[in-house]
Amino acid sequence: MNRKTSHDELARRFFAPAEYDYLRNLPPHLQREAFFRIWTLKEAYIKAEGKGLSIPLASFSFRFSADNPAQVTFESNESNPDQWSFFEFQPGPDHRIAVGARHTGYAAFDIEPLDAFPLLQS
Predict the structure, then answer these.
(1) Distance between first and last Cα of the chain
(2) Which of 11, 35, 54, 91 is the least crowded, having the fewest Cβ atoms under 10 Å away?
(3) Cα angle, residue 90 at apex, residues 39 and 79 outer, rounded to 5°
(4) Domains defined along the chain, listed by start
């Protein structure tokens, strides 16, 4: 999250319209963190689908509850949103991690963050 990028330009180009509107309506000091939150969730989904950037990033979106900002809702016309769960972690001030998992109906799953290898340490 410490990269010097134009999050507004990237969001305008790649985010779904509702995500871009959400971002633009936040106070300026919250926009960068919100951008990276949406970006990592999008990465988690396209990687979990196994299709990478062949899925247009604007073709699905994530929405956050005003009452509970930690609650995320996935919206897609291509994939059943009810089959997906997303988990977010922030192991440090400069890193965000998101994991997307499709429900298979066979067993429950747990996500357990563990201390990372020194890779994530500054």
Answers:
(1) 12
(2) 54
(3) 40
(4) 7-104 (3.90.470.20)
